Amino acid sequence: MNYHNVSFEAAYGLKQQIPVSRLPEVAFSGRSNVGKSSLINKLLGRKALARVSSEPGKTATINFYNLDDQLHIVDLPGYGYAKVGLSDKQRWAGLIEGYLKDERRNLGLVVQLVDIRRPPSDQDLQMIGFLQQMEIPYVVVLTKADKLNQAQRRERLASIAAELPGDPEGTVIIPFSALSGEGVDELREILGQLVQFAAKHPEMLTREAPEADGEAGSEDVKVEYIGFDAE
């Protein structure tokens, strides 16, 4: 893919505004202030394509970026910022849940961001649990890796697998630094593999409606917690 050929496409504040997928999609999820906009900018080779808000918790839309007309980069609203009104928190939760459950989405992957310096928050763990229940493929990217010295980094990398839910050996974990660019090549390789797979097997990205019999059903998985962080 040509990473020089990337542009902002649209922003949506309500789930019903989002059109049916026309390209494979990779969604980026994480807490406010985890460095999501900085990661997207570094990944796409732009300085300010994804705007870094002056106030945490102010990204109130799902933003779509077109990468070489082969892939949509989808920036989900940041969660976990306490100083936001209840109505906004509920709307954001419905927006994110609606997007992730939408059968019309050609969602190939969620990139879940976690700050490497501390254990995953309750909201991070709940989001990963939600992705597992919905059987949505994901990778975990550990942001701000440059903030730790080598000893601290080794300690956190040794701990993080045990702190995440699910199979630690089956979870792809990528340290990332927006300063040094660490992790960019690994992420680009994954995105390239997804685009190639989607070209050969477009039907594999179309998800069926969740079963209602209690196993990963639509009534069992919620993201209502988003934005309700007490910190």
UniProtKB/TrEMBL annotation:
One Gene Ontology cellular component annotation held by this UniProt entry: cytosol
Cofactors required: Mg(2+)
BP term (GO), one: division septum assembly
Pfam families, per the entry: MMR_HSR1 (PF01926)
Presence of the UniProt keyword NAD in the record: no
Keywords tagged on the record: Cell cycle, Cell division, GTP-binding, Magnesium, Metal-binding, Nucleotide-binding, Septation
Entry's family note: Belongs to the TRAFAC class TrmE-Era-EngA-EngB-Septin-like GTPase superfamily. EngB GTPase family.
Its job: Necessary for normal cell division and for the maintenance of normal septation.
Record's protein name: Probable GTP-binding protein EngB
GN (gene name): engB
